[in-house]
Records
---
Amino acid sequence: MMILRREWSLILSYGTAAVFYLFHQQMLERMESPLWATLAFAWLFAVILLSAFAVVRHSEILASVVGEPYGTLILTFAITAIEVMMIAAVMLTGPPVSFLARDTMFAVIMIVFNGMAGLALLLGGLRYHEQSYNLQGANSFLAVILPLAVICLILPNFTESPGGTLSTLHEVFVIVMSLALYGVFLAMQTLSHRKYFLGPNEPDEPHTGNPAEILAAPWHGVLLVAHIVPIVLLSKQIALPIEFGVNLFNAPEAVVGFLVAVLVLSPESFAALRSALANQLQRSVNLLLGSVLASISLTIPAVLVIGLMTERTVILGLAPVDTIMLVLTLALSMLTFASGRANALLGAVHLLLFLAYLVLIIER
């Protein structure tokens, strides 16, 4: 009974998935009603969000057992898996030409670098005046994020393939390059240069978790997977009201990518904000920059593979306005994470760019 009370969102999420799958045709017919589509989206969004927060809760318990940077990686991989599955579900229910991966990746970069990192730096700076982090770790993240972002989101506009797409050869190259770069980065983060991703005063020693938590770790791993499964099941269902709402209100396609990014990033962003307010800026940096790196280097290859297997056209090249915002964000981030210390001013500047991004979504 205690477990049931603690994991009540698991019952809710599986129950919701069962209702939507058993009565799929009836639900589909009711999507013609704006009120029903809105209610269905709000309900599915809330249920998926609850499951995502449960994933974070169990991954944080596992993180306390394995220590850093492995704890952050558990959360990053869990959230990235959710992201890939949601994008795949929306892609497979949408048109044969997909902008979703591009819009979601761009939204992830804007939300994390400008929205959440800006808010974390602002709140942490207001509380502690100045916070420190490991400069070498932040620079390592940026050294991989920068080329991947440019090659995946800007370069497609300058190849001979039309409309911001890549040729089959280029897509295979991007898949292999992204995975190889991320593999090299993981080896450095977990083996050869682990100390780069620890706080300035954090000892580089083997982590020994609480004995009770170590014994419960397999159970939390099972529950983590159990909470991810309904997210996968409901991802395809939430795609229907999203597409209906975009068509009904003639909203920009970028709204879909923004909503997917918000849903996926909410739990991880909340964990990063809590760490910044607890004066653990290093964990915030690991979570935020790690989520961007994993999103680009794992999600884009997965989407390209899906496109090749289903013969769907994946558009990756950004529009000119978005390209300017991306370059400005990356340049500002290199300045922000260039000293090993952060303050509220840096956070305010990033938040300003995030507000500009929101305005440009609404009207260009």
Note: The chain has a mean pLDDT of 83.
---
Amino acid sequence: MLGTFPVTNSFLIAFLVSFGLIVVTRFVVQRKELIPRGLQNIFELIVEGLLLFIESVTEDKAQARKYFPLIATIFLFVLFSNWVGLLPGMGTIGLAHSVDGHTTIVPFLRSTSADLNFTLALSLMVVLTIQFTGIATLGLFGYGKKFFVSPLHKPYVLGTVVGLLELVSEFAKFLSFSFRLFGNIFAGEILLIVMLHLVPYFIPLPFLFLEVFVGFIQAAVFAMLTLVFLKMATLPAEH
């Protein structure tokens, strides 16, 4: 606890990952050279790859550069949060805690994405950003046309039904974002813990490599869906 602010095991990992990304970025930017080498090569490869991917989705260079900070931050933060949770000791070293006669371990550190509070908070931020971006681009009435059809519009009944479905889907994004990331990472964490207890040597290695791949895929999916929904939010209702 910091005063009245609770510091959880997953929050500590989130802070360390954020601090690490900031330090590495500052280090590379301050020591950048005209002919890149070493860490700068890797940094530029990641930045260029992400920017080209965003441009391929938005088909607009100006829009790609506008969305790049958000998409790159989400991808890198979620990716390293997932991967840090696979390090030795994560989720397995902690304090014993008894509940109804059953002893469990409360880990000192655990993956941020395996905490539903984090995925809910991140999803809420993303969904609100999508809505605000749509309103800022199209205006309040222009964006509202996607969900509420004028009685003068034909076919009014069908348009109203489709608009209501679109409105429901906006709220569904919050849940799908949250539980997709949480479910996959938490399930992988449980799988590794079970395998380590059953067969502690060699056998868990294939599952560990699988979780490395899953961590990358989940970060890419989260960032890609955010980008796609941002692009859709800026399109007029006619599209």
Note: DSSP finds seven helices and two strands in the chain.
---
Amino acid sequence: MSRRLSLTQAFVFLLRRDLLLALRNRAEYAMPLLFFVLVITLFPLALGALPELLARIAPGIIWVAALLAAMLSLDSIFRSDFDDGSLEQILLSAHPVAVLVLAKVSAHWLVTGLPLLIVAPLLAEMLGMPAVAQPTLLLTILIGTPILSLIGAIGVALTVGLRKGGIILSLLVLPLYVPVLIFAASATENAAMGFEVSAQIYMLLAFLFLSISLSPWATAAALRMSVS
């Protein structure tokens, strides 16, 4: 990054750069979305014509698929930068590395998390989820998927220097994803039954604010350890 760029300009520059790279590699970045759709589509085929059962377990199905799709895309956050050497330039930048990391995580969410949010209502309708629960589902995806990207960035930073770090990455981030899965699926299920969901939403918001506050700094420190 140029020293003449302000911090805001550097953030926008890195965000736009990652979005352009994703646009040029559309097939690679479309895989998590296709995986998300395919996994959810297979459940009705496996369980058969049981609309009551599908409607009851739809929140869990959608969120497990979203979690797995997020894990599938995590390696793309820093891998290309590590391979072409631009990650070292980011670490040597005059700007706070944590802010630049946040730009890359934001780009990752726009490319992988936002499409899940867009297609989720169609898949929820296919599973027979009650209409009253679908706004809660969208809200949990809107809050929860950035958490997955922020937590996953730490794991990617720790394993980016490893040739076969996929299994290690899964072992690192999967336990941290479980609370998000529990509260998000629980909120959607409670909404479908007409119960209050504010407690689960507040917990997800707390996880989001905590992740935004801590994850970029932890990711920056992990990147320095991996590159050094």
Note: The longest helix spans residues 97-126.
